[in-house]
Amino acid sequence: MGKSWQCDLTEKVFIAFKQYQFAVSVGELRKLKNRLIALDIDGMIFDLSDDCDFHSFDLPQFQTHIKLSLCELIQLRDLFEGTWFAIELIHMCHDILGDYRVQKA
Q1: Handedness of CA 80, 16, 57, 91 (dihedral sign)
Q2: Model pTM?
Q3: What is the Cα–Cα distance from 66 to 95, expressed in whole angstroms?
Q4: 26-38 and 70-97 are packed helices; what angle lies between their axes, rounded to 10 degrees?
Q5: Where are the beta strands (DSSP E) in the chain?
Q6: What is the strand order of the sheet 2-7 is part of?
Q7: What would the pLDDT profile of 54-94 be if each residue is shown by its tens digit?
Q8: Cβ proximity of 67 and 56 under 8 Å
Q9: Which residues contact 69 (CB under 8 A, 6 or more apart)?
């Protein structure tokens, strides 16, 4: 449903989810991920009112908001968590391996 990639030239992380696509810095990605994790998904699942079927997620840096179903919200949260894991893994590899260059054969 979504994908993410990082551009080393612009130092941005690109997120594509549904029809939305946006680029954020790593710091902005952390803030958005923390906002998604802070949502009470368990409470929303067990709340039987219609108010919890959808959630509006504001993106003030893009002057927009995304209205997501509960399932889409969980998918977006998983996408952000996976993206953050990949960024941390890349940083760990750089710390362990140091700077490296790929040599042409």
Answers
A1: positive
A2: 0.80
A3: 36
A4: 140
A5: 2-7, 12-17, 20-24, 54-59, 64-69
A6: 2-7, 12-17, 20-24
A7: 888 777 677 778 888 888 888 999 999 999 999 899 888 88
A8: yes
A9: 53, 54
Tokens of residue 4, six digits: 């993410």
If one compares 79 and 46, the residue with the highest pLDDT of the two is: 79
Q: Which two tokens stand for residue 75?
A: 């998918």
**Per-residue tokens: 95:** 């710390």
**Torsion angle of the four alpha carbons 73, 44, 49, 67, in this order, in degrees rounded to the nearest 10:** -20
38 vs 32: CA distance, rounded Å: 10
Which burial class, exposed, middle or buried, applies to 83 when counting CB atoms under 10 A from its CB (0-12, 13-18, 19+)? Answer: buried
Hey, how many other C-beta atoms are within 10 angstroms of the C-beta on 8? 7
| pLDDT at 101 (0 to 100) | 66
